[in-house]
Amino acid sequence: MKIALFSLIMNVPNPVTGETLTTQQKLQNVLKQAVLAEELGFDAYGVGERHGEPFLSSAPPVLLTAIASKTKRIRLLTTVTVLSVLDPVRVAEDYATLDHLSGGRLEVIIGKGNDPRHYPLFGITEEEQWESLAERYALLKRLWGEENVTWEGRYRPKLDNVTTQPRPLQQPIPIWHGSASSTHSTELAAKYGEPIFSSNTFHPMAKYKALIDHYRERLTYYGHDPQKAIVGAGAGSLFLANTREEAIKRFRPYYDAHNATAAAKHNQSPFTSLEDNIQNGPALVGSAESVIEKILRYHEAFGHQVLSISVDGLTEAEQREQVERFASEVAPVLRRELPSTVWEKAPTLFDPPSSDKEIAVQNTL
């Protein structure tokens, strides 16, 4: 299994220390987290997209470009790009530029988004979200795959003989479809024969499994081989400790604080407590052994090749602790038990320097 670390850059007061990071501190925290993920052998780092408090993730291409400048190997994900409200021309230009600056390490996950506040900001209604997403994605595909595009639709001015610049470095840039709540997203992914990424965050396994099963069924309908389906999946909150009891005790303040936010309430999670979420939901809270068992159980249901985790909300010291523990105690077992061919041919255009001498030479260029 391949493993991604991601952040939605939610900046709220720490429920344990009371500290609130400045915007500058939080953005720097994300950059440091991405560098640490690469050092620890994670396969990818993702940045989400939100447009409102308490999130600072309104500009993923900017943040991912900063991360690209500080890393050499790790894949860069958008988790997700809210294409339902964005101009496909702007998306094509921004992310093709990022693709070049990262040496071809970009993977775009598209979706309609998980926060209804962005619809009035960008001039569409919530009822239009799926139609808007499908139209904008069809145009984005053309802009990246064709030159001299002439197009007319509902959600942006018409185009006449347009070739966006720069052209993507990767041919094509890999695209995933974010899947959280509706068969509209799995239908779109199946139509194009492209991977899906299940959010698997707020609800019991059965809800997300039904969407993944629908995706595989519709792949067959559109003439694609469901045996070749590529699925990624998120996870609930991560907190590892030597025992389940210790993990629950240390994580409970974070869980309670997050559940009190407007973002959490919008998702209407059915779990009545942290213990209920651990027992019946996706939360990865407990000993390394119990977390491994849970991930294996979810893999049996989903068949996913990529797992994404997040340590948002914790102190910086706890973030490092959790990421390091996952990398040393959990990830090796997942890679051994659940082999994955995703990203086996990741670009190596920017190989890291092999010696201090090389670093000194490069720093003078």
List the helices and strands and how they pair.
Elements: E1 2-7, H1 23-39, E2 44-47, H2 60-70, E3 75-82, H3 88-101, E4 106-111, H4 118-122, H5 129-145, E5 149-151, E6 159-162, E7 175-179, H6 183-192, E8 196-198, H7 205-221, E9 231-233, E10 238-240, H8 244-259, H9 262-266, H10 274-280, E11 284-286, H11 288-302, E12 306-309, H12 316-337, H13 356-363
Parallel strand pairs: 1-2, 1-12, 2-3, 3-4, 4-7, 7-8, 8-9, 9-12, 10-11
Antiparallel strand pairs: 5-6
Helix pairs in contact: 1-2, 1-12, 2-3, 3-5, 6-7, 11-12
CATH topology: TIM Barrel
**Number of separate structural domains:** 1
The ordered string of helix (H) and strand (E) elements is EHEHEHEHHEEEHEHEEHHHEHEHH
* SS field, number of helical segments: 13
| CATH homologous superfamily identity | Luciferase-like domain
Q: Structural class, judged by helices and strands?
A: alpha/beta
Contiguous runs where pLDDT drops below 50 for at least 5 residues: 346-365
Strand tally, please?
A: 12
Distance between the termini: 38 Å
CATH architecture: Alpha-Beta Barrel
Instruction: Let me know the largest β-sheet.
Output: 8 strands, parallel, barrel
Radius of gyration: 20 Å
Mean pLDDT: 93
- CATH level 1 class label: Alpha Beta
The general outline is globular
For the biggest β-sheet, the strand order reads 1-2-3-4-7-8-9-12
Query: Helix content range of the residues, please?
Result: 40-55%
InterPro entries: Bact_Lucif_Oxidored, Luciferase-like_dom, Luciferase-like_sf
Domain Luciferase-like: 12-304
Protein name: LLM class flavin-dependent oxidoreductase
GO molecular function: monooxygenase activity; oxidoreductase activity, acting on paired donors, with incorporation or reduction of molecular oxygen
